């Protein structure tokens, strides 16, 4: 059974349609990235999944339950929202202790010490959280979100406000939670590099509709196609090479820039391209498959969405 | 009930660490308690009647006022800062969250009310140069009715603060402050210097407190996560 199941979910505020029939699932142990520009409907989707907003129509279920009404299932979910859920006047230890009591954590002392160490806050554990930097508060918020060993964690921009070292720590944490502990992660983020590094699958949302939904590897490789590039030993052979390539079935989007030619080829088409080029007497300096970054894909999707609207 | 007390304890912790809030509450209680005590001279032949009246309405009003300012910390501030959203994602029901906060607000507000009662009695005794104490019915009023009223008022204020947007909350706050100042300033004139706090009066007050508590417990069923989240400041 999928951990998250969203089916034809719609939501409007007054006349403004925020979600227009989105559907997706997230499987157990998966790191699912939810991308989109501001106002795309990401936060609304997350809030509906967390039971903070009612679905307009369709359904949004987490572990088979509607979190808006199922208190017990909410106890198996970890949440880090834009606000860290931290009380400024309480110390780091008191904050974690408070949530440990709310979630009924067993042996809270040991678990809190472990998480304070993980977040690098052991030495500041008795200081009021209000005296912490943005990054320290974020780390404490992350520690709070996983305090009760949840089965799924919803993270809303977890790296926001963090320095590069702390961002690295967050990425490691996500990979550790998902890999070793089998926790499902729902990651709402603008940080495309982070999403590409840690997510198995992503959904790109724009204007309340899902514009792309696939595994990161499939998206970056292109739909059934691979971006392939060759560098010629002799720039003067560029014209001849182009003519040879145009004659190969399945090769498209040829772009010649000096001694470099890039193209799209079928996933298993590289040997044929290389064989044909060398057979035609074209001398090659270098050849390699190129994958597009998630950022390029994201911008492409946004551009297409803008054009179609 | 365990979860409710966890929330209540945290609210009390927060209130005790909020120096400005505590100073405001203590100053209000001490100043209004102290400046009201000379009123016992009016009825020099029977000052206990005036003392009872002060114990009846002033202690109640100041207790409610403290409940109001502590509610601002427990409900409104948490909403303004957005921390409430994380709490709404916890396994607690809305009723448990609300009840925990109300309990956490009522306990310190009631302690303030008790302090007011002591200040008024001690001040009156000092002015008259003899010890005067509250009648048994006012003591019962202070022990039972006042905490019930503070809980009902804090619960109602907290309920409204959770459901209303920030602008509406500003209007509500203004209305509450003006109302409390009006009550403190004019109640004694309305009651008159000779009205005694009798057992039937006490019983009536107790019934009103019970009815208010029942009303607010019924109203809490209309608390809604979506309403709270959509009225959070941007």
Structure in words:
The complex is a heterodimer of chains A (309) and B (234). Chain A is α/β, with parallel strands linked by helices and 309 residues long. Chain A has two domains: 4-219, Rossmann fold (3-Layer(aba) Sandwich), CATH 3.40.50; 223-291, 2-Layer Sandwich (Alpha-Beta Plaits), CATH 3.30.70. Chain A is built from eleven helices and 13 strands. In chain A, the strands form three sheets. Chain A has a six-stranded mixed β-sheet with strand order 5-6-7-3-8-9, sandwiched between helices. A four-stranded antiparallel β-sheet of chain A has the order 11-12-10-13, with helices on one face. In chain A, helix 3 packs across helix 4. Chain A is elongated and about 75 Å long. Chain A starts with a strand and ends with a helix. Chain B is an all-alpha fold and 234 residues long. Chain B contains nine helices and no strands. Chain B has helices at 2-16, 19-36, 47-81, 83-88, 94-128, 136-163, 166-191, 199-219, 225-230. In chain B, helix 3 packs antiparallel against helix 7 (166-191) and helix 6 packs parallel to helix 8. Chain B is elongated. Chain B starts with a helix and ends with a helix. The mean pLDDT of chain B is 89. Chains A and B meet through helix 2 and helix 3 of A and helix 1, helix 4 and helix 9 of B.
């Amino acid at each position: 059974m999928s951990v998250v199941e969203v089916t034809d979910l719609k939501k409007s505020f007054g006349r403004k349609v925020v979600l227009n029939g989105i559907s997706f699932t997230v499987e157990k142990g998966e790191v699912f990235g939810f991308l989109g520009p501001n106002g795309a409907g990401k936060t609304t989707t997350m809030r509906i999944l967390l039971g903070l907003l009612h679905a307009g129509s369709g359904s949004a279920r987490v572990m088979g339950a509607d979190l808006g009404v199922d208190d017990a299932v909410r106890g198996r979910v970890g949440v880090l929202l834009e606000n860290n859920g931290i009380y400024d006047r309480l110390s780091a230890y008191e904050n974690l202790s408070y949530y440990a009591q709310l979630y009924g954590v067993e042996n809270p002392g040991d678990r809190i010490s472990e998480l304070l160490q993980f977040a690098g806050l052991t030495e500041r554990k008795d200081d009021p959280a209000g005296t912490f930097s943005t990054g320290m508060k974020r780390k404490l918020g992350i520690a709070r979100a996983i305090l009760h060993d949840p089965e799924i964690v919803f993270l809303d921009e977890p790296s926001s406000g963090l320095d590069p070292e702390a961002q690295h720590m967050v990425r490691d944490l996500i990979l550790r939670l998902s890999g070793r502990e089998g926790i499902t992660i729902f990651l709402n983020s603008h940080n495309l590099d982070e999403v590409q590094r840690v997510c198995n699958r992503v959904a790109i949302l724009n204007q309340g509709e899902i514009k792309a939904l696939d595994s990161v590897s499939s998206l970056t490789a292109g739909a059934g196609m691979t971006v392939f590039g060759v560098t010629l030993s002799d720039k003067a052979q560029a014209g001849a090479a182009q003519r040879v390539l145009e004659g190969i079935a399945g090769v498209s989007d040829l772009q010649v820039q000096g001694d470099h030619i890039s193209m799209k080829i079928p996933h298993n088409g590289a040997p044929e391209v290389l064989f044909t080029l060398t057979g035609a007497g074209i001398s090659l300096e270098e050849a390699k498959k190129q994958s597009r970054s998630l950022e390029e894909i994201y911008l492409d999707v946004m551009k297409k969405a803008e054009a179609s609207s | 009930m365990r979860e409710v007390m966890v929330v209540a304890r945290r609210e009390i912790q927060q209130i005790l660490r909020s120096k400005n809030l505590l100073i405001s509450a203590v100053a209000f209680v001490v100043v209004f308690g102290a400046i009201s005590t000379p009123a016992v001279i009016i009825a020099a032949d029977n000052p206990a009647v005036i003392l009872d009246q002060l114990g009846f309405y002033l202690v109640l009003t100041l207790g409610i006022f403290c409940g109001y300012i502590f509610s601002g910390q427990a409900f409104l501030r948490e909403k303004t800062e957005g921390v409430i959203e994380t709490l709404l994602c916890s396994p607690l029901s809305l009723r448990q969250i609300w009840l925990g906060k109300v309990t956490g607000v009522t306990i310190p507000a009631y302690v303030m009310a008790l302090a007011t009662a002591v200040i008024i009695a001690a001040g009156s005794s000092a002015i008259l140069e003899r010890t005067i104490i509250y009648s048994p019915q006012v003591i019962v009023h202070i022990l039972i009715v006042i905490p019930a009223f503070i809980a009902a008022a804090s619960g109602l204020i907290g309920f409204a603060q959770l459901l209303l947007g920030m602008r509406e909350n500003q209007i509500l706050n203004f209305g509450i402050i003006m109302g409390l100042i009006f009550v403190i300033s004019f109640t004694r004139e309305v009651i008159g210097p000779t009205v005694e706090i009798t057992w039937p009066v006490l019983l009536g007050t107790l019934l009103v407190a019970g009815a208010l508590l029942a009303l607010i417990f019924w109203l809490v069923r209309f608390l809604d996560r979506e309403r709270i989240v959509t009225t959070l400041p941007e």
